[in-house]
Amino acid sequence: MTEPRPLRVVIADDQAMIRYGLRMICDDADDLEVVGEAGDGQAAIAQVRRTHPDVVLMDVRMPNLDGIQAIAAILADPTLGSPACLVLTTFDDEDYLAGALAAGASGFLLKDADPESLLVAIRRVAAGDSVLDPAVTARVVSGYVAQRRVRDDRIGLLSAREIEVLRAVADGLSNVDVGLRLYCSEATVKSHVRSMLTKLQMSNRVQLVIFAYESRLIST
């Protein structure tokens, strides 16, 4: 049996020491391969174009082009394969985070997270999950929605079961954990998520989380 190829990762951060540390963590994992590094958003786009990674670890505060603009550019270009973009952040980056999530990031990871949490996050976003710290998400997304002054009333497009799945996704649960909460299989959860994305014309789970706040399913 042919072994699955390693997940290809690009690391984008303007601090060389952070890039070095992230590379060391990834290199210690048999199922990950760092295929490129970048010190700013423009270089990150170039690395994605060159290497076609599965996951991009993206800092938000970088020179020349910040991480938000880089994510938007990467995900808007169909030739780049729509890699999962995982934002690396600190607690004082809330304004940046809202923009990154709206641009299509698959989630965020705090820079003080332990190595195992980083590896789990990379694998989760590569598998189509989102990685969202519920405490930080509540502040970031609710503030973003309040600034937009938008109420999204498309909730009527979803079934009662899909709404249950949406609430669980908005709580930051993985597909496996959603299934455990709702007593259904991971495959069933994935089917509901795909259905919601299609009905709402969205591209990823993070947009579903923002929708949950905009439709007042989740409040702080």
UniProtKB/TrEMBL annotation:
Residues covered by the HTH luxR-type domain? 151-216
Q: Does the keyword Disulfide bond apply?
A: no
- What's one GO BP annotation on this UniProt entry? regulation of DNA-templated transcription
Q: Which keywords does this chain's UniProt record carry?
A: DNA-binding, Phosphoprotein, Transcription, Transcription regulation
Instruction: List every position bearing 4-aspartylphosphate.
Output: D59
Q: Which domain of life is it from?
A: Bacteria
Q: Does the keyword Cytoplasm apply?
A: no
Limits of the Response regulatory domain: 8-126
Q: Which InterPro entries is this protein grouped with?
A: CheY-like_superfamily, NreC/VraR/RcsB-like_REC, Sig_transdc_resp-reg_C-effctor, Sig_transdc_resp-reg_receiver, Tscrpt_reg_LuxR_C, WalR-like
PROSITE patterns attached here?
A: HTH_LUXR_1 (PS00622), HTH_LUXR_2 (PS50043), RESPONSE_REGULATORY (PS50110)
This protein's name: DNA-binding response regulator
